[in-house]
């Protein structure tokens, strides 16, 4: 197993780092936010459901992590002005940004292409690739001034294995790799800045359990299994590695 898959982060290895996590209300995003806080990171929680964000916020406070921040935001509807304002707010409140973990996941339902609508495709493209790109661009000035900054995009195996009924979700997820590789190429001149794509594969995430209800979850790694990989690619251990597509549990 590659070392990044079973990476053991040192205590306080995220001390003084400010990390923004989208999709922080549940699943991988929520768990990663708590794990980052355990290591000393100040986490900015972004998600569309305020109640779910509050649960993650409370979980971080319960373990004595640095006080997080929560920004309710629907990536399917967010505009340029809101993203610009986010950058202003982060600069004012924290004075820095050391990383972004893009976990938000845009998905409607499984159906044949003949049943899928234009608006459904547009929403999935916005959440899965367009809004994460625009957010990263808006926050790039902050990332560029950080001593060590990492952007990690959580992908999906159906973006690399097109299958019937996955339609716009699969197509939008496949676009993530192009964005990441283009950004990595353009960021070559910034030795302190990197971006990578991590594809969890089949794991016991809420999304997997919802889309594969007949699958025995006991055959899958728990969501916690991917946390060492996330901590590696957001931490200093991954310095100098950019533009990679990484498969955690490829079947």
UniProtKB/TrEMBL annotation:
GO terms for molecular function: oxidoreductase activity. It comes from the Bacteria. InterPro entries: NAD(P)-bd_dom_sf, SDR_fam. Signal peptide: none annotated. The keyword Oxidoreductase applies. The keyword Transport does not apply. Keywords: Oxidoreductase. Belongs to the short-chain dehydrogenases/reductases (SDR) family. This is SDR family NAD(P)-dependent oxidoreductase. It comes from Chitinibacter fontanus.
